[in-house]
Amino acid sequence: MSESEVKQHIIQLRATLEKHNHAYYNLNNPTISDFEFDKLLKELQMLEDQFPQFADPNSPTQRVGSDRNEEFVQVAHKYPMLSLANTYNEGELLDFNGRVEKLLGRSVEYVCELKFDGTAIGITYINGKLERAVTRGDGQKGDDVTANVRTIKTIPLMLKGNDFPEEFEIRGEIILPHSSFERINAERAERGETPFANPRNAASGTLKMQNSAQVAKRGLDCFFYYMPGANKLQDGHFESMTHARNWGFKVSDEMKKVGSIQDVIQFIKYWDTERYKLPFDTDGIVVKVNSADYQGELGFTAKTPRWAVAYKFKAEQVVTRLLSVTFQVGRTGAVTPVANLEPVQLAGTVVKRASLHNADIIAELGLHLGDMVMVEKGGEIIPKIVGVDHQQRGLGLEPVVFLHHCPECGTALVRSEGEAAHYCPNENSCPPQIKGKIEHFISRQAMDINAAEATVEQLYNSGLVKNVADLYDLKFEQVVALERFAEKSARNLIDSIEASKQQPFHKALFGLGIRFVGATVAKKLSEAFTDIQSLSTAKAEQLTQVDEIGERIAQSVVQYFADERNQLLIQRLLQAGLNFKSDSVKKEALSNAFLGKILVISGTFVKHSREELKEMIEAHGGKIGSSVSKNTSYMVAGENMGPSKLEKVIQLGIPILSEDQFLEMINKD
Ligand code: IVH
What we know:
By secondary structure, this protein is an alpha+beta fold. Helix content is 37%, strand content 18%. A hairpin with a 7-residue loop joins strand 15 and strand 16. Helix 1 packs antiparallel against helix 2 (34-50).
């Protein structure tokens, strides 16, 4: 293939991948299998590696983000980012309609939309390509968060069709769907971090993260609702947004054009109850005059458009009695308090329990047993207590105190400095921790053993399985003798356990449930160490040399393997035949230029992205270090390398390679 043919092919691959991406994420209608998609993506990645001159920040390969650490640059908005006037009842909406009709001297069509509860974003496209994404900031200027926004899969990097303006801005709301919110908070709780209060905070916090590779994993989404200045191209707002939808933007299907304010009120009534069925938060309805001409005539006040208004839903809140607080112990030993409430109707369901998260939240609320508490339904499936009605507090109520001992095994709880959660340290004999560990071990992401939670409970209660190694000693006769088991189900379980022995090293490692070793970290560790033996004897300094492994993870790994009981467990798992070795079919090395060497990358580069450099290092036998130490062999330095890092490199006498010198060493330019 000639260079220009390669370029054409790259462009075509990108367009194809974007089309499938749109079908998958925006239309929920996949047009290709995951396997085929990955194959095309890999082909594109390979071509982009080989032909860096055709690199493009809007390539679908860039959706994974990067770990570049950059402060955000402030950018002025071309059109100020205004907010909306709020209304809270029918009367105020009728007043809004009255003002509009008076100013225009006629009645108008309105567009009704959901008011998405997230964080606003303005994205500029030039020639159909995503150019820049800026947050609201103070309304006049905001932060350039383009790198993070590029990782959001529903946001098009390249537009479809050809009838879009050469340059235009589109605005929308970046949100975190409930499912992602629950997952992130569960992960935070497990790490002892304070959970996000609601999906809105989580969305804006995520958008401001410094590491776009982390953002990519969070599951943000975006609905678009406004194109400043673009209405003049179309009859009205509804028509502009319909065009935007055709170009690939996610415009809510709930958007509706109506003929009168009475229809608007009907729309609001419908969503006041239906909103709880949506997979994300809305805090109201936005009403917009549709016609472009009338919008122009109505114009803006200093803060808000005169042609639009928000109707805010009342936060659904009820008052009920706090009956008791129970404490649940999770797989990692984290103790979570749960409020048991007098059952009460809230937003279409009966609420009996509310999460309290941790001791700080109990203290902040000043909860007493028997208090009348305000309960609200936010983004979470489980509602939360937002306050106490002090006027209704009876005499002599006892304050809620956090436990000092584990409710399951009686061990004294510990709370480490800087952590929000209390832990039960008795990880090897505390029943819910053991069951939790077994459940984690057999989960899909780990050993993928086909057994329900009730089965784990049964195996544990019967005394047959007290740790994950016991699973491999189970005999068919023992299982079939258990209640509710038949020949077939017992056989299936035994077969599934047997099959799990073939799971790759990284899954088995993840399955051990070492604190802070999630699926990604397990993968990194399994790539850096050939087998569990070498990992188990690694010192913290060796571990932190591995890409993405910091001090906290390293300490946790060392601590895990220092425990004799864990060593014993691994011995048994090895004897059972589990796969604790790296795949022998490693990516074939291109050369040994960096064999046994550890390279640290810092700064920004001209010819290649950091991801590309990392892959090149690995392909030539080297390893990537996350921080500079005496073990670092080379520092690959780009522009704007941090001064403290540079000083350390010089102090330790580590050779510095420029991007070109590095490429020369592997005979590439
Ligand atoms: S239109 C000039 N439409 O709510 C008017 N805003 O409280 C531009 N929001 O600033 C905004 N959903 O961040 C519009 N369907 C929607 C919206 C929406 C959420 C946000 C947006 C806005 C804020 C006002």
